[in-house]
Write a structure and sequence with these properties.
Layout (H helix, E strand, L loop, with lengths): L1 E3 L2 H14 L4 H19 L10 E6 L3 H15 L3 E6 L7 H9 L3 E2 L4 H5 L2 E5 L14 H9 L3 E5 L21 E5 L4 H4 L9 E5 L43 E3 L2 H7 L14 E5 L7 H10 L6 E5 L3 H7 L4 E3 L11 E4 L7 H11 L5 E3 L2 H9 L6 E3 L3 H10 L6 H6 L1 H12 L2 E4 L5 E3 L5 E3 L12 H14 L4 H20 L7 H16 L7
Parallel strand pairs: 2-3, 2-5, 3-4, 5-6, 6-7, 7-8, 9-18, 10-11, 10-13, 11-12, 13-14, 14-15, 15-16
Antiparallel strand pairs: 1-9, 16-17, 17-18
Helix pairs in contact: 2-3, 3-4, 9-10, 9-16, 12-13, 16-17, 16-18, 17-18
The structure holds ligand NPW and potassium ion.
Potassium ion (K) binds next to strand 5 and strand 6.
Length: 522
């Protein structure tokens, strides 16, 4: 599991550690890890490349600038030609600047340095950043973008809000982000995530406060090697309990959650999912949702609704009926809403599915009908895109636009989960799944190719099947998003447009890759 911690937590952990360590230790660990990564990037392609390479440090007024200046000093000592642009000269980190100058680095105000650099270190602002990037930084950020330099963000790309991933103005587009101690939520959630490039965590010892590696994954210890050492001496009490706010499933997590039939399984024990979707006029959503559900690990798929004939023609495996959910026979979970329209019959289907006493996934038209109720059963899973989220928010008295929802996905997903009292999967560039409490899950496998007609119907059928197979709404939603994203990537082969049917066709391969070791998270 990849985990991200809020700024408040990072600051508290840092405070505890600083009290135990000689002054400046954490910053030196950060700088060492940062310099090691920069050296590696400079060496890529050209052996011995650190020597005589051109490095530009963009140093803001806080400790983020300090990290960048100390890392610059380390690179200068290895023969790099390092220049530093001081964006707030009166408040620059004095120790970092002194170290850089002593190592042979120089201060510059020549913007051309940004265009001809091999590597730019973005130390403008880190977890202390609030609001849009300030004007003094903009010409440097533009110039670095024009040049061919590899841009390395220190802790996070400047201009990205660390806790929400919002990007309220200009921001640095990084090729690599070296982040300290733990991921910050803004690195895992769009739009911020799309500015971060490849994220490389560096262990600076914050993991000790939880008694485990900061990420539950292998971390670089940086050049000093000190970061990997246990800081527990006489006092073995963990400093703080784990308090991550965002997590992203990795392949091994998905493997552990996927339902697997055992020797005793028959089709009813594996779970039966019911699908109330589509209409006589729009049968496509029903066909797609049923098709995906058939690949979702259940023993059987029941369809209830007006598109029964089309469904059975496309999927002879499905058990179909033309009535509503109430007349459909036993299921372990319902999917209601895709392509349903919003007439009285659709309203009845939603009511019946919600009253069936089993977990229910509500999507599309179902969500618009649910918004009128303003509440959902605790074991419901709502799967809105930003536009549907706006309607749901209105149902609980919150006014927001689609753009606002997309800019602050974590916040609005959580608001919906709390308001409706259930689990919410907010679709989009980073799909977020969250209940009213506990960490939110963000999906690491998404691709822009998934934004295609019918793709949401596939996701609904798949997630509904996982619900029926016994997964919790949080697990069903996040595992389905993971498989759906991976199937989209497989179907598109990178950048070829995909149709929803091709996503379904790739689900078995996505499942196979996810349940075996050596899988697929990008
Ligand atoms: N925590 C840890 O464990 C460790 C933390 N470490 C490092 O410290 C970093 C945090 O340092 P920090 O607290 O000094 O804040 P930082 O991010 O440098 O920014 C504050 C300054 O930026 C300014 N500013 C604000 N918004 C701005 C904007 N939009 N655009 C431009 N400027 C803006 C703000 O100015 P002011 O509002 O005061 O005018 C203030 O002066 C952290 O990210 C990591 O790199 C590591 O060394 C080791 C362990
Ligand atoms: K930064």
């Amino acid at each position: 599991m990849r985990r991200a911690h809020a700024v408040e937590w990072v600051r508290a952990a840092e405070g505890e550690l600083i009290a135990r360590l000689p002054e400046g230790t954490l910053m030196q660990r950060a700088a060492a890890g940062l310099a090691a990564t920069c050296a590696e990037l400079l060496r890529e392609g050209v052996p011995g490349r650190v020597y005589a390479s051109r490095v530009l440090v963009l140093a803001g007024s806080g400790d983020n600038g300090g990290d960048a200046l100390y890392a610059g000093a380390r690179l200068a000592r290895r023969g790099a030609r390092v220049r530093a642009a001081l964006l707030a000269p009166a408040r620059v980190h004095a120790g970092g600047l002194a170290a850089l100058l002593a190592a042979g680095g120089r201060v510059t105000d020549d913007l051309a340095e940004a265009e001809r650099a091999d590597l730019v270190l973005d130390g403008i602002v880190g977890i202390g950043g609030r609001g849009p990037l300030r004007d003094t930084a903009l010409p440097w950020v533009d110039a670095a973008g024009r040049g061919a330099a590899t841009v390395v963000a220190v802790d996070l790309p400047s201009g990205v809000d660390p806790d929400s991933g919002a990007v309220p103005g200009a921001a640095v587009h990084a090729d690599v982000t070296v982040t300290f101690g733990t991921h910050k939520p803004g690195l895992l959630v769009d739009p911020g995530a799309s500015y971060a490039g490849v994220v490389r965590p560096v262990d600076i010892g914050l993991g000790e406060v939880r008694g485990a590696g900061a990420d539950g994954e292998a971390l670089s210890t940086g050049a000093s090697g000190a970061a990997g050492r246990s800081l527990r001496g006489a006092d073995t009490t963990p400093l703080l309990l784990d308090g991550h706010v965002v997590e992203a499933l990795q392949q091994e997590d998905v493997a552990a959650l996927l339902p697997a039939p055992d020797a005793e399984s028959d089709k009813y024990r594996r779970g039966v999912v019911g699908i109330a979707a589509g209409s006589a006029r729009y049968p496509g959503a029903a066909v797609l949702a049923v098709g995906a559900a058939l690949h979702g690990g259940v023993g059987a798929v029941r369809y209830a609704g007006a598109a029964a004939r089309e469904v059975v023609r496309a999927h002879p495996e499905a058990l179909v009926g033309e009535g509503g959910p109430k007349d459909a026979g036993r299921v372990q979970a319902w999917v209601v809403g895709p392509g349903l329209s919003q007439d009285a019959e659709a309203e009845r289907a939603v009511e019946e599915a919600l009253d069936a006493g089993v977990p229910v996934l509500v999507d599309a038209d179902g969500l618009r009908l649910l918004a009128r109720r303003g509440a959902a059963p605790a074991d419901a899973l709502l799967t809105p895109h930003a536009g549907e989220a706006v309607a749901l928010l209105a149902g609980i008295g919150v006014t927001a636009t689609s753009a606002q929802v997309e800019a602050e996905r974590l916040r609005f997903a959580r608001e919906l989960a709390r308001g409706y009292g259930c689990t919410v999967l907010l679709k989009g560039s980073t799909t977020v799944v969250t209940g009213p409490h506990g960490p939110a899950r963000v999906n690491p496998t998404g691709t822009a190719q998934l934004a295609t007609a019918g793709s949401g119907d596939v996701l609904s059928g798949l997630a509904g099947a996982l619900l029926a197979a016994g997964l919790t709404p949080l697990d069903a939603g996040s595992v389905a998003a993971y498989l759906h994203g991976l199937a989209g990537r497989l179907a598109s082969g990178g950048d070829v447009p995909v149709a929803a049917g091709a996503i379904t066709a790739a689900l078995p391969e996505a499942w196979r890759r996810s349940c075996h070791s050596g899988g697929a998270t990008g």
